[in-house]
Design goal:
nine-stranded mixed sheet, 298 residues, globular, 18% strand, alpha/beta
């Protein structure tokens, strides 16, 4: 982008920001991969934003050939076009939060990090997507260190599950709640220590009848529990939870403990989406959650 174009873009962004200030509906973007079955990735994120009162935008970072049973292929578009998508969107739309999902490669990760830094993206919620529910890999190993080094410094909140936490910390995945506490503390140490940053460590991989997640800001550890719902329809739950938090963070500003409020609301809404997932008939593997369970007449 030329200097004159960049100046005009910033002017347009500032104008959009001023007009958006009075708006009660936040604009939220998902930068992630595409799942054709609609249960995960950008499509699931857009459903989540809409269900929770945010206007959703999307930037495609990767394409997958995927259904509820398997990922049969991954295509990563040229990083030059990814850069163009981000710059064109951020130049015009004031974005109150950014959700990062599947990035696929180190080059894509570096490009996203560089452009988010350029645009000083607000409230970056990073879901370090590495493996699909089917067990198929969604992130090249070379991208993991790039994520830690380039994206973590910009993340306001990260949402790893236990296997992802193990990879990020280069250790065995936590398999008890006690080990989760230590992992959450170590993950927080990977984020900038000089400002407010959060870790939401998801404990869904632990055995038992209860789900335990930990929310930690470096000072206060919040243990969040809920009963486990007996269903195989859990495709895209990680994508959906992180996008729910991204949608709700701008709406929780000014409330008491806004981050905790947004996370609690997101978890409660997701539990409802999982509980009502049986109303859908999508595929024969791990089905999607029902993003619009509270809106559609049954």
């Amino acid at each position: 982008m030329s200097s004159s174009a960049s100046s005009a873009a910033r002017t347009g962004s500032a104008s959009a920001a001023s007009s958006a200030t009075a708006s009660r509906i936040p604009n939220v973007v998902s930068i992630a991969g595409v799942d054709p079955s609609g249960g995960a990735g950008v499509f699931a994120d857009l459903k989540t934003f809409s269900a929770l009162g945010a206007y959703g935008c999307g930037v495609v970072a990767a394409l997958t050939a995927q259904n509820t049973q398997a990922v049969t292929g991954v295509h990563v578009p040229p990083t030059e076009f990814l850069r163009l998508q981000i710059d064109t969107l951020f130049a015009d739309v004031h974005l109150h939060a950014t959700k990062i999902g599947m990035l696929g490669s180190a080059e894509v990760t570096a490009t996203v990090a560089e452009r988010l830094a350029h645009w000083q993206a607000a409230k970056v919620v990073l879901d370090p997507v590495m493996v699909a529910k089917s067990g198929d890999s969604l992130l090249a190993k070379s991208a993991i260190s790039m994520m830690r080094e380039a994206l973590f410094p910009q993340a306001f909140l990260i949402t790893p599950n236990l296997p992802e936490a193990g990879v990020l910390l280069e250790q065995r995945a936590p398999d008890t709640v006690k080990e989760m506490y230590r992992a959450a503390e170590r993950l927080r140490e990977l984020l900038p220590l000089s400002s407010e940053r959060w870790v939401l460590l998801k404990g869904g991989h632990l055995p038992g009848n209860d789900l335990v997640d930990l929310l930690f800001d470096g000072d206060r550890m919040v243990e969040l529990t809920a009963p486990r719902i007996d269903t195989k329809n859990t495709h895209g739950t990680g994508c959906t939870l992180s996008s729910a938090v991204a949608a709700l963070l701008p709406q929780a500003e000014g409330q008491f403990r806004p981050v905790e409020t947004a996370v609690r609301h997101a978890r409660q809404w997701l539990l409802g989406a999982i509980a009502h997932s049986g109303e859908l008939a999508v595929g024969s593997g791990h089905g999607p959650v029902h993003h619009f369970h509270a809106l559609w007449k049954r």
